[in-house]
Amino acid sequence: MTQRKKKTSPAAKVFGAQSRMMRERLGWTMKDLEKRVPYTESMIAKVERGERVPKPPYVVAVDEALAAQGLLMEAAKLLWEDGPPEWTQEYLELEADALALHVYSTHILHGLLQTEDFTRAVFQSLRPSLDEEEVERAVQRRLATQQLLYRKPAPRLAFVLEEAVLRKMIGGREVWEGQLRHLLKCAALHNVQLQVMPNSRETNAGVDGPMVLLETPNHCIVGYVEGQRGSYFLSDPEDISELNHVYGTIQSQALDPEASVAFIERLLAGEL
């Protein structure tokens, strides 16, 4: 039985040809471009041949790297006739291979730190509501990402958590206490740094909200920001420089790792 060949999108071929021409105009090889974006040479080759439809983060990164001034973003609109695909999946793919993550959480714990019970309670809280099967599928997908905590070679993982995140009893007291105990176990991992930003801090550089800085295997840094109605990537060097500065300031304002562990222990003991 012969396997049917997957039909190639004409729009993907056009986009690939345009991005290849822009790259070659700069005298760059695909390896040169790989050094400037968080994607492999193999991925770039597939997109340029029209064999793979790029997701928005790829288009943004390549548009900026090639100084296309938005031309590739315009060309890519033909690829997404039903609207841009979800960026969350693109983030998860990058996260799985990340060399380092720097996370700032303001309203909910990052998925890498959640217990199964807490994760289930989070998805049960969503509106519109998910049915039981949808909740369980979402829970298992999230738990699968936690392999990153124990991956070898170990990634460098840093988390700054607002105190308000720690105080939310999503799922009830028993789930909450189990989550705090789990955080203490995560904080003990050699590749994890966990810090708490106390409510008593009078200055907080994180007033613009949550963020993630992710270092890819080829040492590119990308920013990822989520909101109520969507999420987006940042890869422009100026944006990344600014986010690095913000995150560094947030870390300096938060409790140090030892004091943060002590804070969680006191919260768990009912002393705060």
What does the model show?
This protein has 272 residues and is of the alpha/beta class. The protein has two domains: 70 residues, lambda repressor-like DNA-binding domains (434 Repressor (Amino-terminal Domain)); 150 residues, Endonuclease, Chain A. It has twelve helices and six strands. Strands 3-2-1-4-5-6 form a six-stranded mixed sheet, sandwiched between helices. A hairpin with a 2-residue loop joins strand 5 and strand 6. Helix 7 crosses helix 8. The N terminus is likely disordered.
List keywords for this structure.
272 residues; 6 strands; 13% strand; alpha/beta; Endonuclease, Chain A; globular; 434 Repressor (Amino-terminal Domain); 6-stranded mixed beta sheet
- Distance between the ends: 67 Å
CATH class of the largest domain: Alpha Beta
**Helix segment count?**
12
Structural class: alpha/beta
CATH fold-level label of the largest domain? Endonuclease, Chain A
The name of the CATH superfamily of the largest domain reads: Endonuclease Chain A
Shape field: globular
Q: Could you tell me the strand content as a percent range? A: 5-15%
- Mean pLDDT across all residues, rounded? 89
The appropriate CATH architecture of the largest domain is 2-Layer Sandwich
> How much helical structure, as a percent, in the residues?
40-55%
Largest sheet descriptor? 6 strands, mixed
